[in-house]
């Protein structure tokens, strides 16, 4: 099996009432942990690469690692650019073998977002690559850009039809209260998602795949582990998993998770080194780290997304 686009994945996810996990990859252990979990559970999976990941690992290394995972696992894998900031970045990923790109024009005006997204769609579609657009702005940190809560804004349902029809995007990321990073709500604040906005958008775009970014749930056991071994992340709060389960059954076909993987890895490494202070071979602490990624992704696939057995 070769890398696939998101078209077939989303069609089956929409009809089947589940979502496909989109997990950020930055190195070999993360690629292996995610794809081993997907293979073990016979699940489709999206590996997504941010500009920061391309800078850290390089396009060529990421490409080869993902190709190795495709050959190794046999499950459908899409390789997706996360938060493409401009046409050149999207083009470089399309030309370099990605099967899907996101153009994130959410920081632009509505008109410019349409114009810039359409330019990416035209090029991507001419190469058989799918495109995710975004309307509305999430709070949190992405690629060192910090969007404050005041600047974040929910997606306006009245804009979605015009955006989708004028740009030709294949999926749409919306803002309904999720946010990037591990600190999504203030301590004491009741986590809430605007399912009413999602419902309205679903009615306006029947059958159209919706994407949720910022969907890490910050499981308390990992947080406790990180805090126990010296990494203080006091007050980290994620999206409750029952809300994500509900979203996965709806028009939401792609759910983005990065922070939970970071925390799972870091917790495993901190624990290993605290318990084995004499270890200095990276394989000794990266083996449990890779296993922690696999366990986290397996949990998401089976208990949150519902895409197990859907490859
Ligand atoms: O949305 C942001 C993702 O978590 C990627 O984060 O830009 O630090 O690689 P990054
Ligand atoms: P989290 O920070 O909640 O994991 O979100 C990741 C994301 O949306 C990547 O695009
Ligand atoms: Zn995101």
How do the helices and strands line up, and which of them pair or pack?
Layout: H1 7-16, E1 20-24, H2 28-40, E2 45-49, H3 51-57, H4 59-73, E3 77-84, H5 87-95, E4 100-103, H6 110-126, E5 130-135, E6 140-142, E7 145-147, H7 157-167, E8 171-174, H8 195-204, E9 210-212, H9 220-228, H10 241-248, E10 252-257, H11 259-275, H12 282-305
Parallel strand pairs: 1-2, 1-10, 2-3, 3-4, 4-5, 5-8, 8-9, 9-10
Antiparallel strand pairs: 6-7
Helix pairs in contact: 2-4, 2-12, 3-4, 5-6, 6-7, 7-8, 9-11, 11-12
The structure holds glyceraldehyde-3-phosphate, 1,3-dihydroxyacetonephosphate and zinc ion.
The site of zinc ion (ZN) has 7 residues, from strand 3.
Task: Characterize the biggest β-sheet.
Answer: 8 strands, parallel, barrel
Total DSSP helices: 12
The low-confidence runs, each spanning 5 or more residues with pLDDT under 50, are: none
CATH third-tier fold name: TIM Barrel
Bound molecules: glyceraldehyde-3-phosphate, 1,3-dihydroxyacetonephosphate, zinc ion
- The tally of strands reads 10
Order of helices and strands: HEHEHHEHEHEEEHEHEHHEHH
CATH class: Alpha Beta
Gross morphology: globular
Strand order of the largest sheet: 1-2-3-4-5-8-9-10
Radius of gyration: 18 Å
Count of structural domains: 1
Structural class: alpha/beta
The name of the CATH architecture is: Alpha-Beta Barrel
Tell me the strand percentage band: 15-25%
Range of helix content: 40-55%
The CATH homologous superfamily is called: Aldolase class I
Amino- and carboxy-terminal Cα gap: 11 Å
